[in-house]
Amino acid sequence: MKSFTLAVATAAALYAGVNQAHAWSLSEAAAPYKGTSITVVGLDRPSYKIAQKLTPEFEKETGIKVTWNIFPYEDTLKEETLNFISNSQQFDAILSDVVWPVNFADPDWVLPLSHFTGDAKLADPNLDLKDFFPVWLASFTVNNKLYGLPFDSYAGLLYYNKSMLKAAGFDGPPTTWDELAHTYLPKLTDKSKRVYGYALQSARGETQTADAFARFLWPWGGKFIDYSNKTVAVNSPDAVDGITFREGLLKYMPDGIVSDDHSQVVEMFAQKQVAMITEWSAFYPTLSSSNLGSDLGIAPEPKGPKGAYSAFGGFAYMVSSQVNKKHQNAAYLFIQWLTSREMAKPLIEGGAVVARQSADEDPSVQAKFPNLAPMVKTWETSTVPDWRPQLECYPRFSDIVSDWGSRIELGQVGVKPGLDSMEKDLTAYMKSSNCWGKINNPEAAMLLYK
To answer: Is the residue at 182 inside a domain?
Structure first.
């Protein structure tokens, strides 16, 4: 930790010296890389669409050509991993989910951020790492080294229909899961009219793991991993309580919810078939442009008996270590520009979600985008960076959680037997794959940024 603090202090002093001697500019920093072409990995989501729309501004100022390579989320890790294993040098700017940093950092496939921030010619003195929410910096820190700059940053939120709640006698949304289940849902659900109080996206796959399962693990005091003892903890008494509570919600949800993914749940809510959903902040542009109009309400996710733990997910950009130095520096300049304080508001205006405190907490911006205030509250007080564990073997880990989580939700197996089987399979896999040797605990890194 001392070495990290010293590195930050040294970089800060270097920035100050640069400022005094000569004002830094992107165009001058990019001059040696004019004519360089870089490839950036992206997703088919709002944040990347507005980023692509704004990219010509960067190209005009720098002379660096940027090519976007867009993948479905489900294919991204595979494509990037193949790129590194084959040393194809296809991608310069690497996109990392919050669960992937160890996959890229452990084999030295990406460069630590200090590689660039220590270079006065490249580092914008106004980068201001402290302007990023601490939980986001911790999420992309491995062995006390920061590897990525956050982009496309999500929080789980409670979306609710104001008119439906008012008609049922409620002035506002529930603040606890217990209140939602026992006070709100009985009055909001009328299955004869196909109207439901709540819908939980539960499709088998990452949606089951990150949404349907994790959402009822943490607020009840459960967790995936006990880092100190190197054990799987998904079948603890707290976890049993949380998943048992989840099963009790099914009678208030649409039939077949276990097969529904984000798009189906968001559409049911937009069509006023469902009064409340817990969904990612990234869906605000979709819902705000739906026929909900002024009926759209947004709040933090409800608290559980052991505290407020909202869904947490998103991405950061990293620089490939396999491409040549010219491409590395050009890619860093693009990432630094895209995630800068100056670009935060234009990105938000275009539908992106960013982790810059200065933009997300700006009263004028919050007035236009009501998803920001509850999102900020979530990142500051109501989530954990290891909402899903950071494991190099995470894809198979998630498959096991999803498999047993779906079986439990479908009623094919009881909660306790199902969680015991999940723990048994996860423990066996973690041991057989040497997964314990390739794990990162981002929660420990929170101390570096607070």
So the answer is: no
Residue 28 lies in a domain: yes
Per-residue model confidence as pLDDT tens digits over 108-166: 999 999 999 999 999 999 999 999 999 999 999 999 999 999 999 999 999 999 999 99
For strand 274-280 and strand 149-161, is the pairing parallel, antiparallel, or unpaired? antiparallel
Q: Which residue has the tokens 């205006």?
A: 349
Q: Encoding tokens for residue 102?
A: 């160890």
Tell me, yes or no, whether 26 lies in a domain. Answer: yes
- Cβ-based neighbours of 230, under 8 Å, separated by 6 or more: 436
Shortest CA distance to 110 belongs to which of 123, 93, 126? 93
- Residue in the structure block whose two tokens are 């830094």: 24
What is the number of domains present in the chain? 1
Task: Give the distance from CA 58 to its chain's centroid.
Answer: 25
Q: Measured between alpha carbons, how far is 40 from 51 in angstroms, rounded to an integer? A: 11
> 0.85 exceeded by the pTM?
yes
- Say if strands 196-199 and 93-97 run parallel, antiparallel, or are unpaired: unpaired
**Within a domain: residue 328?**
yes
Q: How far apart are CA 166 and CA 170, in angstroms?
A: 5
Q: Tell which residue, 47, 74, 99, has the closest CA to residue 283.
A: 47
DSSP E strands in 399-441: the ranges are 439-440
Residues 187-215: tens digit of each pLDDT: 999 999 999 999 999 999 999 999 999 99
